[in-house]
Specification:
globular, alpha+beta, 5 helices, about 30% helix
Length: about 260
């Protein structure tokens, strides 16, 4: 059934009650698995992801089906593996290791962190990032990037700054050719199926874009507005993740003092 966006302009509210520039509820935790070097759990709306980090450690350089990033033995290699549960989506489809979309996300995440982590400090080693998708409702790549950032911080892997990500879209499809369409922030699963959208990731609190993925067609005149809304959303996400990290650090400090 096509998504009815006729009320977006009239009521200034989306189907889930949010305004155009509002994020969905975001919840995150750090150190959820004691056996891993670093771990995190993140919810963006109904999209739920668990991330574990192992390393830096010596060992295998590349895994079957995993996305890798990094250059040469002088730097550590970032290896990413994403597992999507069969019950995570409404179609209950189980994705194999050779799934094209999963492989693309693995490569995107690996390349993003290869350029952000100080991999030169760990030559001849590998950093393994494993992501488990428990539920899908839009912004899957953004949720994976945000969860990986928290897990890497928990593992103590040095990086230049946070990589934070979110999605932005437009209120009309490409076929309508509406240049005056309004941008939307943090699309849910229903909106992603019907509307053009992009995933943008920024480095830190500034406007430096480190990840930009767009798989749908949109008029060039709308792209600038979508990107601007996405970058602003990333700043909101960074504040939320920074609060999570600071609260966790405060709890760790209190436990040490006691």
């Amino acid at each position: 059934m096509p998504l009815d966006t006729s009320t977006y302009t009239l009521a200034l509210l989306r189907l889930d009650g949010r305004r155009w520039n509002e994020l969905r509820r975001m919840h995150a935790q750090i150190s959820i698995q004691a056996a891993a070097d670093g771990s995190s759990y993140l919810e963006m709306g109904n999209t739920k992801v668990i991330c574990t980090v192992s390393g830096p450690s010596e060992g295998r350089r590349s895994g079957a089906g995993g996305g890798g990033g990094g250059g040469g033995d002088a730097n550590a290699t970032v290896q990413v593996e994403i597992g999507i549960a069969g019950f995570s989506g409404v179609d209950r489809k189980r994705r194999g290791r050779g799934d094209k979309r999963t492989s693309e996300m693995q490569t995107t995440v690996a390349n993003a962190f290869s350029n952000t982590l100080f991999t030169n400090l760990y030559p001849h080693s590998t950093i393994f990032i494993t992501l488990h998708v428990l539920s899908q409702d839009g912004s899957l790549l953004a949720a994976c990037l945000n969860a990986a950032t928290l897990a890497l911080i928990d593992a103590g892997v040095p990086m230049s700054d946070y990589i934070v990500a979110c999605t932005s879209g437009s209120t009309s499809s490409y076929s309508t050719n509406d240049e005056a369409a309004d941008p939307l922030l943090d699309l849910n699963g229903t909106e992603e199926q019907e509307l053009p959208f992009l995933t943008v990731g920024t480095l830190g609190a500034g406007d430096k874009v480190s990840v930009l993925v767009m798989e749908s067609r949109v008029q060039a005149g709308r792209l600038e507005g979508m990107l601007a809304v996405g970058v602003d959303g990333c700043k909101q996400v960074r504040e939320i993740l920074d609060q999570v990290v600071r609260r966790h650090g405060q709890r760790v400090l209190e436990s040490v003092v006691k």
